[in-house]
Design goal:
This protein is α/β, with parallel strands linked by helices. The protein has 13 helices and eleven strands. Strand 4, helix 5 and strand 5 form a beta-alpha-beta unit.
């Protein structure tokens, strides 16, 4: 079995995080992943603190294992959620789409393991100085908000820039990807898109079917003009947004155009007005299975791949 420093740090069996996907990663999915030996993470997204608290309570009712909450720092509710996770004594907080500096001291005082998502070496160094417990280096292959660097390029540079444990994210959906991450210097992986296929993931059936039928060129990135690029499936909405982005629409109109699009995809499966966030690895996600089975399968495959790699040494 693969054990790494992140397992000992957090008290988990496998070095696998489930990504914090807004309106997708709820208490039920997080609990299923944690029960499977990984770290399940509830996504706060743009939701108010009351929603996040409800999902934490759901997760706590389903598992006694550690859970995490991902806080999307651009959310208007970020301050409230930041206080909530301390009150609820969540074991882990991951962060994305911003700089969590102003919250770090309070979270650490509450005994929370703070593990920011970083997309650059500069941010990795800053989070290290501020006392993060570990880092998630996420490449642009991932779904949702993305950076410029690919996972293959970003992970080894972040590992070289910090003494903290590093998890790799972006473009990882099986044991081969996990094994590659370990060889790049990471001590764990975070997967989002792979868990869209979990039985416990309650996205609309239309969303799940789109992921299961995806091809290698099924995603596109929009939102660069506003400074917040997002990777999603190529749908009528994504194409319309891309056309509007470079068609003369004002920033305010463009911002309004995308409001609520993810919820329409997750809850309604709306192909015309919904944004189906998804990573480039979607073509490798081709079956539904329990979340716990996904965690174990990926780690078992990674162990086999790493074992085979040894045969190439003279």
């Amino acid at each position: 079995m693969i054990r790494s420093p992140i397992c000992k740090l957090l008290g988990i069996q496998y070095p696998v995080f489930q990504g914090g996907m807004a309106w997708i990663a709820d208490g039920k999915l997080a609990a299923a992943v944690s029960n499977g030996g990984g770290l399940g993470i509830i996504a706060a997204g743009n939701a108010p603190a009351s929603y996040v608290q409800e999902q934490i309570r759901i997760a706590r009712s389903l598992t006694d294992k550690p859970i995490g909450v991902n806080i999307m720092l651009m959310s208007p509710w970020a301050d409230e959620v930041a206080r909530l996770v301390a009150q609820e004594k969540v074991e882990v907080v991951t962060t994305g789409a911003g700089n969590p500096s102003k919250y770090m001291a309070g979270w650490k005082q509450a005994g929370i393991h703070v593990i920011p998502v970083v997309a650059s070496v500069a941010m990795a160094k800053l989070m290290t100085r501020l006392g993060a417990c570990a880092l998630i280096a996420e490449g642009g292959e991932s779904g949702g908000h993305v950076g410029e660097l690919t996972t293959m390029v970003l992970v080894p540079q972040v590992c070289d820039a910090t003494h903290l444990p590093v998890l790799a994210a972006g473009g990882i959906a099986d044991g081969r990807g996990a094994a590659a991450a370990f060889l790049l210097g990471a001590c764990g992986v975070q997967m989002g898109t792979r868990f869209l296929s979990a039985y416990e993931c309650t996205i609309h059936p239309n969303y799940k079917q789109k992921v299961l039928k995806a091809t290698d060129l099924c995603t596109m990135v929009t939102g660069k003009r506003l400074g917040h690029p997002v990777r999603s499936l190529r749908t009528p909405f994504a194409r319309s947004y891309a056309k509007a982005e470079y068609g003369g629409m004002s920033d305010e109109e463009l911002e309004a155009f995308g409001v609520g699009a993810l919820r329409k995809a997750v809850q309604e499966g709306d192909n015309e007005k919904g944004s189906f966030l998804c990573g480039q690895i979607a073509a490798m996600v081709n079956k539904e299975q329990p979340a716990a089975e996904i965690v174990k399968e990926v780690m078992d495959q990674a162990e086999q791949v790493l074992g085979r790699a040894g045969q190439w040494l003279a």
